[in-house]
Amino acid sequence: MSLQSISAETPQPDSADPATEPATRVLRQFRIVFNSVKTHFRQVEREAGLGGAQLWALSVIAQSPGIGVTELARSLDIHQSTASNLVRTLTQRGLVSAAREGFDRRGVALRALPAAEPLLKSAPMPFAGVLPDALSSLDEATLRRLEQDLGRLITLLAADEAGAQVPLAQL
Description:
The protein is mainly alpha-helical. Helix content is 58%, strand content 7%. The chain is built from eight helices and two strands, in the order αααααββααα. The protein has helices at 3-9, 22-48, 52-63, 69-76, 80-92, 116-122, 130-136, 140-157; strands at residues 96-101, 107-112. It has a two-stranded antiparallel ribbon with strand order 1-2. Helix 4 crosses helix 5. The longest helix is centred in the first third of the chain and has 27 residues, at 22-48. The protein is elongated, with a radius of gyration of 19 Å.
């Protein structure tokens, strides 16, 4: 698929139409972003048979054998209880092992099992999702502007900031 065909298929905000308010144009842009994220997670589910957050967690565990749940939560930037739930699902599906290790045997070391390898090889990329991947490719100045502007929007929404640690794949 060529870049020309992609841009022809991608809906563009109608900035030339004076009847279209800026708030409407930005709302349309949010819809495009959300639909792109949702489409990626549907593709992950269809091709890998796992939810997007589960696949991302599995990929981190596979890359870091012996990682603990706390470190996994930190890597995914999610709450530890959310990471524990992801691990529980992955262990129940036979993709991850969780073994008690360490001096006092309180730490749990996570490892990807052999069944995870073909799944990870065939799953659509990026494992972290399309939005984190796209954001990581933006320059620092753009990210700072986005952070500031989205911060203002979050304040106007009076949004619960605890939602910041819920994976997009689980929304």
